[in-house]
Specification:
The radius of gyration is 31 Å and the shape is rod-shaped. The chain is built from two helices and no strands. The chain has one domain. It starts with a helix and ends with a helix. The protein is an all-alpha fold. Helix 1 packs antiparallel against helix 2.
Length: 114
């Protein structure tokens, strides 16, 4: 009788230990899910930011083009104006390309997290 009581007690302890282990696994899975949600939210913010940068860059490019069109009205020499405006325009377009690249790089990651 004592052996069967000891065996039952051993089984009860085994079940309790397994229950605790499963609870720890559940907690780790929940923690991982929270972390994944934070990462997804981060990349969604990055995507939004990159879109805003792209819009701003396009606005800068438009302003630069308008400035280039109005350059004869500026008092500096036409050659200086042209070189400066061309440099600004090239920089703005380069920035727009970088923003587009950033957006295209972030977009698939964001979509895969959603």
């Amino acid at each position: 009788m004592l052996d069967s009581s000891s065996a039952v007690q051993t089984q009860v302890q085994f079940i309790q230990d397994n229950g605790q282990t499963l609870q720890q696994i559940v907690e780790q899975v929940q923690s991982t899910e929270r972390d994944a949600n934070k990462v997804r939210d981060f990349f969604a913010n990055v995507e939004t930011f990159s879109k805003d940068v792209l819009k701003s860059t396009e606005q800068i490019a438009n302003i630069t083009q308008e400035t280039a069109a109005a350059s004869p009205e500026v008092a500096a020499s036409p050659e200086e104006q042209s070189a400066t405006v061309t440099e600004i325009s090239n920089s703005a377009f380069e920035l727009a390309k970088v923003a587009e690249t950033l957006q295209s790089d972030v977009e698939p990651i964001t979509k895969s997290l959603l």
